[in-house]
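Tokens as discussed.
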């Protein structure tokens, strides 16, 4: 007899936050963001990408379209020198995303940053949450997963966690497991784009979700 199923890959408080937040995102945005295939680096990054202003702007526009943000709303600044204190600010009513030229030359981190800052546009700019909500950074990371851009954020999670209180790598992997589960993907092909550690955590999360659904069928409908 099997007494214990696959263990939850994050702490109970993190799992509870994820369940609650995913339910909130579903209520706010519906399930349409889950329907298209998730975005993979090869889908957005052209061969020979160099990170000049036009190429970075093209990436921004593509991520805007995926996340349902009008590209006309958003300005992009590339800086050769020191950056403003935050990647995202508002100028004359328009969100401005500022990155360095070195950052723009690395397309995966750039897309991760753009998606995260556009998540702030959807959450803060559109009045869905208050500016002082304590989990706003984590929630912005989760929005990127919900809109199919989690592969990019997961690739930069360790570095980003050193400078802001967003989702850590285990939570990213478990969020991606939820995303795959909601899309009916028990073995998602796009997991090949994840680093090995993240991919193993994702699979562990999927095993836990499958076990949870078998043990309590009602839980499968709450994901």
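Sequence:
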């Amino acid at each position: 007899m099997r007494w214990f199923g696959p263990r939850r890959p994050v702490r109970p408080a993190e799992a509870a936050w994820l369940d609650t937040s995913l339910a909130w995102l579903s209520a706010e945005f519906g399930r349409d963001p889950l329907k298209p295939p998730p975005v993979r680096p090869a889908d957005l990054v052209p061969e020979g990408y160099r990170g000049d202003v036009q190429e970075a702007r093209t990436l921004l526009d593509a991520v805007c379209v995926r996340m349902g943000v009008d590209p006309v709303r958003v300005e992009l600044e590339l800086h050769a020198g020191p950056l403003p204190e935050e990647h995202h600010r508002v100028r004359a009513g328009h969100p401005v995303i500022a990155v360095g030229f070195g950052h723009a030359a690395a397309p995966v981190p750039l897309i991760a940053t753009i998606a995260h800052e556009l998540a702030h546009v959807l959450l803060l700019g559109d009045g869905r949450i208050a500016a002082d909500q304590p989990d706003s950074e984590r929630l912005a990371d989760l929005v990127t997963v919900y809109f199919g851009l989690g592969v990019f954020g997961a690739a930069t999670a360790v570095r980003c966690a050193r400078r802001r209180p967003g989702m850590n790598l285990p939570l990213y992997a478990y969020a991606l497991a939820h995303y795959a589960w909601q899309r009916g993907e028990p073995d998602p092909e796009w997991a090949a784009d994840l680093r090995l550690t993240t991919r193993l955590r994702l699979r562990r999360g999927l095993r836990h979700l499958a076990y949870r659904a078998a043990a309590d069928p009602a839980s499968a409908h709450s994901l």
